[in-house]
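Q: Convert this sequence to structure tokens.
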Amino acid sequence: MTGALARTGEQLTMDVTQGNDGNGHSTAAITLRNNCLQSQTSAELVATLLDAAGAVLETKKTSIGGAISGETFQAETVTFSRLGTRVVVRAAVPGNDLLTFEGLAVGLGDFTVNGTNYTYTLQNDSGATSTLVTAVSGNGEPVSINGQALSTGGSATVAIPNSGTTDIVVEIGTKTYTLTILRNSGTGGGATSYTLTFDTNGGSTIAPITQDYGTAITAPADPTKTGYTFAGWTPAIPTTMPAENMTIKAKWTVNQYTLTFDTNGGSTIAPITQDYGTAITAPADPTKTGYTFAGWTPAIPTTMPAENMTVTAQWRYNGGGSSGYSYYTIKATAGAGGSISPSGSVSVREGRDQTFTITPDKS
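A:
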């Protein structure tokens, strides 16, 4: 023992004794002790009166706080305006926010920060049917719990249903803390399942994934789409199942393909490269000396197909004849000692036979 107080392992300790004043008012005698030789800065204390069901009846801030000299204490008796069943006292260090959820394994450090928004999802396996939420601003800013204004600090009891999702939204100044509590049917919690749905945006079908919250998600094989290359999902597939149903959408990049022209000995035509499904403008017909262009095989498509393609030019020989067939001239002559019939220049249609008769002279 040294001085008036016994030193303990904790720098500051607090004692709370609940009672009543005999006039229908609950009281809380609070003593905050500094167990060190050095001066300590104490937190601001907030006392909350609860009824038998755990509902908040009244919240009061105490005058205890500030610097406490070594091995001394500060004490105050808080008198409420009514009788209650239980008193809970919480402390907020000046400059730091206080946020507690009685009976739940979650604290300020568990929340994920995104600007002024703080979020945390809790799979509640404790079986708690309610929680006493206490919030105090360390900088004297406005506080609210699920929309209930509490000046610069206070408490509120929030019920937790046996199934479904419960959101507790606490605002401290410009900061918003959202605690999402997941409960399956029946007290005691358990796993809650959610579904990840794939909108393939015109691609091949992918079955949805339904599994428990927090379990690892195995990404499916990429979808396919004619004329396009898969470019990922938006938003990205999460690594574990989130605490809500979720739909993600496929992104696609259109492919380009090339139409090549084999002019089959005619004038050159440059290939056409463009996006799948876009309209194709046919080039001018090629030319070839002595021939008339007769079209392409296969025909030029009206839009770019989902593959590279080659078309080949067809030609008709300009050999004469109104029928469009080609004709060839054969010049037949006989030497000494005989004759040939027919003789001279003979016109023969392509694909036809021509007979010549050779007769020797009689000796």
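Residues 256-317 form a domain with the Immunoglobulin-like fold (CATH 2.60.40.4270).
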